[in-house]
TrEMBL record:
Signal peptide: none
Keywords: Hydrolase
Broad enzyme group: hydrolase
Its EC number(s): 3.-.-.-
Organism placement in taxonomy: Bacteria, Bacillati, Bacillota, Clostridia, Lachnospirales
Name of the protein: HAD family hydrolase
Length: 225
């Protein structure tokens, strides 16, 4: 029986691709580089902003990453002002969260996004208190970024749940590896930033095309009418 759902943020709970694209492009403007597309950003994201910038710089011609150090310092300030740009919950997410609450299933968010910006997105879209716990990147506290299982295990300990009681949901190969590394059941969602083929390669317990698929799956596992 599932007693807790842990959600990735970007591409799973919220569509934040336009905020990310805008922040990357405003950063690249400093060196007169071309603008990156939404489709490019969908591939660049998932492993934290430093890896995002590395991929964007390489794609725009900075193969030696000469601007990487400066970009890493510049991006967080730009992103602070852009992190809510056109960000919204995916269709069906509110209903899924309502279902979980009604059935006393705990909810948490685990993102590789900087922790303050994770809070900005979650509270800006869902309000305060919608989730039991919300965590962004916390490597300064010794918790490694996804796909390390550290974040999932830390949330499990705080929420008082065991591995067999947890369902982890995400939209990228990083998320699928996170779930597998944490040894928890995993759901790949196709409404986010990556395609079904990428998710299926990891054989998650469920591939969901809409949040209602997650509701049906949990009802079946937990024996909810």
């Amino acid at each position: 029986m599932y007693k807790c759902c842990i959600f990735d943020l970007d591409g799973t709970l919220v569509n934040s691709i336009y905020a990310i694209q805008r922040s990357v492009n405003l950063s690249l403007e400093k060196w007169g580089m071309r603008q990156v597309s939404v489709d490019e950003c969908r591939v660049f994201v998932g492993d934290g902003y430093k890896k995002l910038l590395e991929r964007a710089l390489e794609a725009c011609g900075d193969s030696k990453l000469e601007h990487y150090g400066e970009a890493v310092n510049l991006y967080p300030e730009i992103f602070k002002g852009c992190c809510m740009y056109r960000v919204k919950a995916y269709d069906g997410i509110m209903e899924l969260l309502d279902f979980l609450k009604e059935n006393h299933i705990k909810t948490a968010v685990l993102s590789n996004k900087p922790h303050p910006r994770t809070l900005d997105n979650v509270e800006g879209v869902f309000g305060k208190g919608r989730f039991d716990l919300v965590y962004g990147e916390r490597e300064d506290k010794g918790i490694r970024k996804k796909p390390s299982p550290d974040g999932v295990w830390a949330l499990m300990e705080e929420l008082g749940v065991d591995r067999e009681e947890v369902l982890y949901l995400g939209d990228t190969n990083t998320d699928m590896r996170t779930g597998k590394n944490a040894q928890v059941d995993t759901v790949g969602v196709t409404w986010g930033f990556r395609d079904r083929e990428e998710l299926e390669a990891f054989n998650p317990e469920l591939i969901a095309d809409h949040p209602v698929d997650v509701v049906r799956y949990i009802k079946d596992v937990n024996g909810i009418e």
